[in-house]
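Hi R.,

Here's the input for the NAP complex you asked about:
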Amino acid sequence: MAIEIAGGRMLLAGEWIEKSDQIDVYNPENNEIIGSVPAGKAEDAEYAITLAKEGKELAENLSVRERMDILNKAASYIQDNLEDFARTIALEGSKTINEARSETMRAAETIRISAEEARRLTGESINFDQMAGNKDRMGYYFRFPVGIIAAITPFNDPLNLIAHKIGPGIAAGNAVIIKPATETPLSALKMAEAFMNAGLPHKILSVITGRARDIGDILIESKDVNMISFTGGMQTGEKIANKAGLKRLSMELGSNSPAIVLKDADLHEAAESTTSGAFAAAGQNCLSVQRIYVEEDVYDTFKDLFLKEVKKVKVGNKLSESTDMGPLINEKEAERIEKWVNEAVASGASILSGGTRKGAYYEPTVLENVPDDATVVKEEIFGPVVLLFKVKNLDDAIQCSNDVNYGLQAGIFTANVNAALKASKKLHVGGVMINDSSDFRIDAMPFGGVKGSGIGREGVEYAIKEMSEERIVAFKILDE
Ligand code: NAP
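And here is the predicted structure with NAP in place:
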């Protein structure tokens, strides 16, 4: 069933462009074609950049009031068309309709927060006279936009991650070129529709569809692009960083997040929270709980409670109101996960639940006795698989949690405030959630990782700072 979305067009510098060369978009649940988008090529990316040079002047000259009005109108458009946006997300990606509704509401909120933060884009006065010989100087700094931002986004949150690029980008006064994941471009085009509807002047925004191999390098290597804002996998992030040259980089990458369960924790709460943190969006979430470290005294009790919760996760049709978990983004991804789990089992791991694949669906899966050097421990699974480990104490859990090349967020369940404080200081991550799983985020908090999980922070206020620069103004007061 085709969804009516701007009729197979993409948005280049505010104009809807049709092309005969189209890429089909599939529903991963049944491989039905649900729409198509233009296969953008190098010349389309070059055209988007050329017009964005005019767009950045227009964007910079929009008053804060005008930016706020456009952002608020775009947010209202998304809210008014919630069901349509949600169906698009659910059909082209792997989210269930309920998960898709929640993402749509968050995307509208992200854009609304961007409008509010535009108001707070201020500088401060500087005491130049703190240095000898500067008694007669006074001044301030203000923030100005970086210029043209090329934003490259992944498939797993196809709307809200676009909102996290366009909202702060426009709030800070930039032109933005979005290259969405080829698997999920339709939600990005719906976001473009919201901004065109809100009266964003042409040339400020492009949403260029097409394969990374055809348009990626043009966007990344262009000297006219001032910033690459990338969200996606670590390996892709590294490739982009190697090619980008002298321009600002924001890298929101993956992880294999830990959760720690101590013996004094509320074990029911921990089991519920880690289950939802591990299997939301079929585990295709940068914050997914992947490794659970449980203090040995409560390991068996926690394991029983956790497995009971996992059994409740209802896998099925994405558009059904009662489904908790849908398929992976494609069958190839489900096969990769199956292979990684089979390798872990061959090296000594045991399957406590799940472990079978049907097409793009992979059952919610729990493993234990997994060797420390298994791929499922060291790498990001990005699927519905979680590993249980027995640890001696908090120090042991912290050491194991840190012993990977990722560091996005971590969770710890405990009633002991000292343990919580120690974990918050010693875990090498961008966020520590106490009595919650790693999968907690609001769109207004600083969000990002360390090590292979990224560079910089999103979360609207923080993204706006990354997407703008300080300019100093210094006055020398002359004698009359
Ligand atoms: P991906 O394969 O890295 O792709 C992400 C985007 O990069 C897509 O638009 C893709 O385009 C493009 N791309 C791929 N290779 C490229 C290249 N050589 N040059 C330029 N662009 C290139 O990631 P994914 O599988 O879509 O998403 C999953 C990953 O994103 C996971 O690692 C997840 O943890 C991470 N993620 C991180 C966050 C965060 O905020 N930290 C949030 C969500 C997801 P094509 O589709 O055309 O290949």
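One thing worth noting: The two ends are 77 Å apart (CA to CA).

Cheers,
M.
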